[in-house]
Structure formats: structure tokens, C-alpha cells
Write a structure and sequence with these properties.
19 helices; 635 residues; 5-stranded antiparallel beta sheet; 55% helix; 3-stranded antiparallel beta sheet; alpha+beta
């Protein structure tokens, strides 16, 4: 019986595999550039499973986003020109130009002030819109959108079922014959399914006919089921939500109190619900259902008051806290809904679902660049507030500097919040002119080499301590460059941001290749991994020997202390510490910015040289030095 079930399952999977292959072939012939981008995404994703990152681990996500954006935009160009009966060569050339522009803007956008995520999202949602720009029949647009969405959903659902079925067969083989695949092989199967097979199958499901209209008389079972969902479930819920929101607005008017952090997400969700129902319910607005007929008459009116409340809430938050990415896009959603309402006053824009769908897509695309864009707006707002609130004038000059000075926990939290908003928008470089030159150089170098580390370098350089540990933690920042004696050390890694393993999302990830250095703090030790060899050094003991004046001194006049540490196995390292946060005197080290010097010969896989001196750390003149242990006669 089991063999018969397995045979039937294998035949079903074989038939489904054939269908997938045909769909992928159709997609590749119709959308060659999109298919190529999808293949590259799948290839890069599979290489990442094997810890091979192209071009590198930090930029892999941006490259994948660029390839996806190029793929989506090429589809937009193809379907837009297909609807206008353009030739194959023109479609190919146009799709190549558009894909190249969007892909390059996504990958290199950070260098040119382009905020790529909304551009990629806009390209995705523009696919069903492209064939119907400047064409009058909106019912055809509704039909094309329906079958595109349904086709994509069925494609990925089919791939999911296919992969689960394949996994079941493989596990059955493992159970019966004790032969199976590794967990990494399963990773490759699932990644390939959802980055290659699913997207290619979805491409093959995009309708090639642009003049089809849906039958709303109940003859199509899928449309009939959608009608029941919209007419008898979604429309009554939307009307009930409108009643609740208007009662809520009445309560606000009576109490005179505008709630904090409530209206933004409620108003945005409500506007999305109403407009989505209005667009998806277009063929059913004249249905016999009373709720959908009432909704068709009042949908614009029930948006007005919630949008006014949303505008008041946004204005209050922006006035007190400035613009963040989240607030920017909430405001953008409110503007989009307001423009859709304004379009109802125009003869040509009234009740046109293409306008309702197109306005948000257009605003998303516009928000990705220019002085009005998300990144530039957040950068101007947060940098101006940060400098105005916390920067000081340098005595005897006109320069304004954001420095490491003693501040309250609330100020630390506020500065970190504003810096995080700038970092999210990729706008940290706006405050570089207001930093001490040495710190500005380090932050700029971090942004160039490893953008994810720039925030850590900046927070460390400004001496900001996380609010949760501020009451017990101590730390210092030393802005003066020390003179480090490198005698005896032949390798160094400069300005490393090191954090405790308890603060890392993957504290065990210490694998390194030849020539690479990985550092973290664990309990009272500094854990170093170099070229696959790991060792531990008594960092807390070394910091305990530092002079207390370092922790209370002025950062501008404090020179970075230099520590010499020796591991129990005899390896030697030298540290120049520019910034440090310690949980408490004698407690664990939470984070530090330091330069790390070591002897490469001691880190060979065979271990340190046999004659390496065993040493302990002892304090001397404000720093820790090593002293050789005396050898006994037994040695």
C-alpha cells in the first residue's frame, strides 16, 4: 500500500514538474530579462547558503533587492508595451533600459540620495497598472489585476505543496532505506523553490490578453466566491468600522484630548481598508446586497473625518518629534487618500479605480528620490533637531560640535533615537560636519567599508550608553590618538566595534577565514578568532587596572589606554581602546571600540610557539602590562 501511494505521489509530482517547466519556459520567452534576474537571485541565494557572498555579505541584500527591482520594472515595461502592440525588439530594448535604471538606482542609491525600498515596491504594484494607463476601460484593468494576483498566489501555493510533497517522499526514503539528504540540501531545495521555481511559474501566469472582462453573473466560480466575500463580509465590516471611528472622533471632540500613538496606525489601516474595498468591489457595487450599495454611495464621505484626525495626529507628532520613516509614510498614505478623494471632484477621475490604485504607486515612486523624498526629508528633520538640541558652539570660534558630554538618561535615549532615524534613512553623513574631525573620519570610514557598523562607531564615539544599563554601567571615550608601540606585533585590525555575546543575535558565529579577525566579549573575557583559531583574554582584569580618572575625564583630553593581554595558552595581544562600556566596575564589558594588535605566528593552527612566555596581566601606570612568570626548576 505504501509503495502504491509513493508511486502515485511520484507520478503526480512528475506531472506537476512538467507543468512548472512549461510555465517557466513561457515566462522566459515572454519576459527574458525578468527570468534572467530571477535565475541570478536564486543562484546568489544558494551561494549564500554555502557562505559564499557576492559581492560581500554586507551588500548581498542590496544586490538581491536591485535584481528584484530590475525584474519587476522590466515586467512593467513589457506588459505596458504589449497592451499597445509594440514589437518584440522594442519591448526588449525598453525593458532593458528600465530594468537597468531601477536596478542601478536600487544598488547605488545610497550614494546618490535615492531611498530604494519604496521604488522597488512601486515597481511591483505598477505591473497591473502599466497596460491600462490612458486606456478608458477600467473593468479590463480589474480583470487583469485579478488574474495576475490569483495566478501569482496559485503559483507560490503550488510550489509550496510541491516542495512539501517532495520532502515527504525524501523522508519516506530516509525511513524505508535509511538514506537521506542533509539539512543544508533541504535549505537549497526550499530556497530554489521560492526564489526560482515559484517566481518563474508566477511570471507564466501573468495574462497575455488585455481586453478580457470578468463575468459577474455567477458563471465563474472564483468570481462568485469573491463576490460573496466582498458583498456580504467586507462591506458590512467596513461600514461598522466607519461607525466606530466616527464615534471615536466624537469622543476626541468632547474630551479635547488627542491620543498618542493610536490614530496614526488606525487611520492608515482604515484608509487602506476603504480604498482596497472600493477598488476590489468595482464590479459588484450595483449588487443587490444593501451593504455594498450603501458603501458605493458613502465610501468617499466616510474617509473625510478619519483623514482629518490622521492629519492632526501626524502634525502633532511631526511638530514634537520630527520626521521618521514611519511617520513619513503614514503622512504619504494620508496624502494619497486625500488625492483620491480630490479626484472624485473631477469628471474624468470620478470612480476610476485606476486612479485610486495609481496615486499611491506614483507617490511611492516619488518618495524614493529628490528633496521631497523619504530619506532627504528624514535627514533634514532629524539632523536639524539633533544639532539644535544637543550641539554646542566651540569657544572662540563659529564652529558647532556634537560632542561627548555628560547628559541625562533621557537625553541619551533621545539622541540615540534621532541617530537611529538618520541611520534607517541612510542619512548619518548629515551630521559628520558637526562631529569632532577624528570621530567624523572614523564614521565615514565605517560607512564606506561596513555601513552596518557606522551607527555603532558613532554611538561609541559620542559616549552614549543604552538607557537600560545607564544606572549601573560605566564607560569612557578617549578622543586623543595614542602612540602605540607595535614592537613584537606584526598584524593589526583597527577601530573594531566589539560587543558582548549576550547582545549579539548569533553569539556563536565566530568562524573566520585566513587573515580575518572576529572579536566579542564573553563574561570576563575577550574572545578572539583568527583564521579559524579561537582564544580568550582576561579583558575585565585588564580594564580593572586602569586609572579611575579615565572614566571621569574629558574625552577630548583623554588618550586611549593601551592594554597588553596574554591568554592562558600563551598568545599575546595589545589593545588601544577608544571607547568602552562596562556593566559595572569589575563587571562584564558590554561594548568597546578598539584597535587589536597580534602576532600572526601565534595563531597558526598548530598553536603558539613552544617558547611563548606565560604571562599574567598586572596594572602599571594607568595601563596593563604583561610580566613573565618565573619558571620553576621542574620546568
Amino acid at each position: 500500500m505504501n509503495e502504491g501511494m509513493a508511486t502515485r505521489a511520484q507520478r503526480g509530482l512528475a506531472r506537476f514538474s512538467g507543468q512548472l517547466a512549461r510555465g517557466a519556459g513561457q515566462a522566459a520567452s515572454r519576459f527574458p530579462l525578468a527570468a534572467l534576474m530571477i535565475v541570478l537571485i536564486a543562484l546568489l541565494s544558494n551561494l549564500a547558503i554555502e557562505d559564499v557572498y557576492v559581492p560581500d555579505e554586507a551588500n548581498l541584500a542590496w544586490l538581491l533587492a536591485a535584481l528584484y527591482g530590475a525584474s519587476a520594472s522590466s515586467i512593467v515595461a513589457v506588459v505596458g508595451l504589449e497592451a499597445r502592440r509594440a514589437g518584440a525588439m522594442l519591448r526588449l530594448a525598453a525593458s532593458a533600459i528600465v530594468a537597468g535604471a531601477v536596478g542601478l538606482a536600487t544598488y547605488f542609491g545610497r550614494d546618490f540620495g535615492i531611498f530604494a525600498p519604496p521604488l522597488v515596491v512601486a515597481a511591483t504594484f505598477a505591473v497591473p497598472l502599466a497596460p491600462y494607463v490612458l486606456r478608458r476601460d477600467q473593468l479590463r484593468f480589474w480583470t487583469f489585476t485579478l488574474w495576475t494576483v490569483v495566478g501569482a498566489a496559485l503559483a507560490f501555493l503550488s510550489v509550496l505543496l510541491f516542495v512539501l510533497g517532495l520532502s515527504a517522499i525524501l523522508e519516506m526514503i530516509r525511513f524505508l532505506f535509511e538514506v537521506g539528504l542533509s539539512s543544508r540540501a533541504y535549505e537549497h531545495i526550499f530556497v530554489t523553490a521560492f526564489t526560482l521555481v515559484g517566481p518563474l511559474f508566477a511570471l507564466g501566469r501573468i495574462p497575455a490578453e488585455f481586453d478580457e472582462t470578468v463575468a459577474t453573473d455567477g458563471s465563474d466560480r472564483l468570481v462568485a466566491g469573491l463576490r460573496i466575500l466582498l458583498v456580504w463580509i467586507a462591506a458590512p465590516l467596513a461600514l461598522a468600522t466607519a461607525v466606530v471611528l466616527h464615534l471615536y472622533a466624537a469622543k476626541i471632540a468632547l474630551t479635547g484630548h488627542l491620543p498618542k500613538n493610536e490614530i496614526g496606525w488606525i487611520g492608515t489601516f482604515y484608509a487602506f481598508l476603504v480604498l482596497s474595498l472600493r477598488i476590489s468591489g468595482e464590479p459588484f457595487l450595483r449588487d443587490r446586497g444593501p451593504a455594498i450599495r450603501l458603501f458605493s454611495r458613502v465610501w468617499a464621505g466616510i474617509l473625510v473625518l478619519p483623514l482629518l484626525l490622521l492629519a492632526l495626529a501626524i502634525g502633532a507628532r511631526l511638530g514634537s518629534e520630527g520626521v521618521t520613516l514611519a511617520r513619513y509614510f503614514v503622512a504619504l498614505a494620508a496624502i494619497a487618500a486625500a488625492l483620491v478623494l480630490a479626484a472624485q471632484l473631477l469628471p474624468r477621475g470620478r470612480s476610476d479605480v485606476r486612479v485610486m490604485a495609481g496615486v499611491p504607486v506614483l507617490l511611492l515612486a516619488l518618495s524614493s528620490f529628490g528633496p521631497w523624498g523619504a530619506a532627504a526629508t528624514v535627514g533634514r528633520s532629524q539632523s536639524a533637531r539633533l544639532i539644535a538640541e544637543y550641539a554646542t558652539r566651540v569657544p572662540g570660534s563659529e564652529m558647532i560640535r556634537l560632542r561627548n558630554t555628560k547628559r541625562s538618561d533621557a537625553a541619551h535615549a533621545q539622541i540615540r533615537s534621532r541617530l537611529a532615524a538618520l541611520d534607517d534613512a541612510g542619512e548619518l553623513d548629515r551630521i559628520l560636519p558637526y562631529l569632532e574631525p577624528e570621530l567624523a573620519t572614523r564614521v565615514a570610514m565605517a560607512e564606506e567599508r561596513r555601513p552596518d557598523d557606522a551607527m555603532d562607531v558613532l554611538v561609541g564615539g559620542l559616549g552614549l550608553v543604552h538607557v537600560a544599563t545607564a544606572s549601573t554601567a560605566r564607560g569612557f571615550t578617549a578622543l586623543r590618538q595614542p602612540v602605540v608601540d607595535i614592537a613584537g606585533f606584526d598584524r593589526a585590525t583597527m577601530e573594531q566595534v566589539v560587543i558582548a555575546s549576550t547582545l549579539q543575535t548569533d553569539a556563536s558565529a565566530m568562524e573566520t577565514e585566513a587573515g580575518q579577525v572576529a572579536l566579542r566579549f564573553s563574561d570576563e573575557e575577550l574572545v578572539a578568532a583568527i583564521g579559524g583559531v579561537e582564544d580568550r583574554f582576561p579583558i575585565v582584569e585588564g580594564v580593572g587596572g586602569l586609572s579611575e580618572t579615565i572614566f571621569s575625564g574629558d574625552p577630548a583630553s583623554t588618550s586611549a589606554p593601551v592594554l597588553d593581554l596574554t591568554s592562558p595558552s600563551g598568545r599575546h595581544v595589545r589593545l588601544a581602546i577608544r571607547q568602552l562600556v562596562q556593566q559595572a566596575p569589575g563587571g562584564a564589558i558590554l561594548s568597546a571600540t578598539l584597535s587589536f594588535y597580534f602576532r600572526s605566528a601565534e595563531w597558526s593552527p598548530a598553536g603558539p610557539p613552544a617558547d611563548a612566555d606565560r604571562a599574567t596581566t598586572r596594572p602599571s601606570a594607568g595601563k596593563t602590562v604583561t610580566r613573565p612568570l618565573e619558571r620553576s626548576s621542574a620546568d
